[in-house]
TrEMBL record:
InterPro entries: Homeodomain-like_sf (IPR009057), HTH_AraC (IPR018060), HTH_AraC-typ_CS (IPR018062). SMART domains: HTH_ARAC. It comes from Saltatorellus ferox. This is HTH-type transcriptional repressor of iron proteins A. One of its GO terms (molecular function) is sequence-specific DNA binding. The gene is ripA. Residues 83-180 form the HTH araC/xylS-type domain. Keywords: DNA-binding, Repressor, Transcription, Transcription regulation. It comes from the Bacteria. Gene3D superfamilies: Homeodomain-like.
Amino acid sequence: MTGVVRMRTVYLRPGLTGGLPESCCVIGVTPLLRELILETLRVGMLADDIPEHARLAAVLADQITHTREAPLRIKLPTDARARAVAKSAQVDLSLAVPLSELVRGSGASLRTIERLFVQETGMTFGRWLQRVKALHALERLAAGDSVTAAGLAVGYDSTSAFIAMFKRVLGTTPGHYFTDSGPS
């Protein structure tokens, strides 16, 4: 993915971070969270003994804690057979190749591959492939492609079907993803 990126960093006291993920992750930034971050940066170092600062920190921490993790990466299966199927599925996302065809030559049955995907990625092959397509489309949109072109690139002849899939996977429509700063 290429393009302009803006990043803001806010550090919170450990006492305010209960409920946050244990490891590093990307979260969707809602319009409210964006404004809270910008206000925090405008104010500067927040002091606990200033009531306005304490309230701002509390609301900021609350919003961060209740914001969903953005699904910006996709887990590949570790089993060599399932990984081969996953890589084959990603060769040309504009083609609708059935799983039964992708499994041929993998050394595993259709049922085994289906079971491995659930065990190793936490989702069915179909859901996994939808997420792969949504993330690829997101890259295309970030590069300036239209919603229709991004949908066609990942195998959707119908723009409305593509928008529905994108919203189901990423939490917002393609047209609003960047203007809303991601999923809310």
